[in-house]
Amino acid sequence: MSDMTQPPANPFLKRLPLIVIAIVAILGAFFLRDYLTFEALAENREALIGFRDNNYLLTALVFIAAYVVIVAFSLPGATMATLTGGFLFATFPGALFNILGATIGATGIFLAARWGFGEALGKRLEGAAGTVKKFKDGIDENQWSMLFLIRLVPAVPFFLANLIPSFLEVPLHRFVISTFIGIIPGTVVYTSVGAGLGEVFARGETPNLGIIFEPQILFPIVGLCVLAALPIIINALRGKKGL
Fold it and tell me: Residue 141: inside a domain, yes or no?
């Protein structure tokens, strides 16, 4: 039994949240790309720090809300938002604020996609036969591993990692938990980069966003990916032995 709220019966109403997200995402790509940038943060850093110092709680709440909107509507600047979280609030609690905002925003996309297309597509996959049915069953048997893998692997776009589970009938609680935990490594790395932006600004440089692919960062994340994939590998080997 699904833990989702029943969607509206009208097909247009079911797809309306996704339509709104798509429209806002397109508009945001055109009108916000010059505002959610490293240069914009550098120019406004003193004003942001001053506002934070005078209104810490309000700044934290507004920041989390802004992060939710950026992720939920797939607006440009998610990486800059993560860096800003580190710049304003340090690695901790900045990483926590980033993770909360990203998880809530991702859940919004997940629900919109589930209401719009996910349930119908899930039923089609469940009723399919042959290879498609085996693929769907294999994912169902390893949902936790699959969810953590798509969060941990840096090559999987965040937007796709929100959509794929919605089409595979993943329960809401599994999506939320795996998203919150799975994005911790990458988020902490980028938040720590943001926490050092003060020195970067002073030198007139730009942050090294490729740091996540450096060996001392990438290898531990690859190790986590291997651990997440172990149940899938074990189940596959058991399946072969049973043939």
Answer: yes
d(Cα 45, Cα 28) in Å, to the nearest integer?
A: 22
The count of structural domains within the chain is: 1
pLDDT, one tens digit per residue, over 32-84 is 777 778 888 888 889 999 999 999 999 999 999 999 999 999 888 888 999 99
Residue 93, φ and ψ in degrees, nearest 5: -90, 15
Judge contact between 21 and 72, C-beta under 8 A.
yes
What angle, 0 to 180 degrees and rounded to 10, lies between the N-to-C axes of helices 158-167 and 91-113?
40
- In this structure, the dihedral spanned by the alpha carbons of residues 99, 195, 58 and 42, taken in order and rounded to 10 degrees, is -120
Domain assignment of residue 207, yes or no = yes
Residue pair 41/83 in contact (Cβ under 8 Å)? The answer is yes
Determine the structural domain holding residue 154 and report its residue range. Answer: 11-241
Phi-psi region of 79 (alpha: psi -120 to 50; beta: other; left: phi over 0): alpha
Q: DSSP code of 153? A: -
User: What would the two tokens of residue 194 be?
Assistant: 């943001």
Please spell the DSSP secondary structure of 175-190, one letter per residue.
HHHHHHHHTHHHHHHH
Between 124 and 23, name the one with better pLDDT. Answer: 23
Model pTM score: 0.82
Query: Scanning the structure block, which residue is given the tokens 């966003």?
Result: 209
Does the residue 2 lie in any domain? no
Look at residue 134 and tell me if it is in a domain: yes
**What is the C-alpha to C-alpha distance for residues 220 and 226, in angstroms, rounded to an integer?**
10
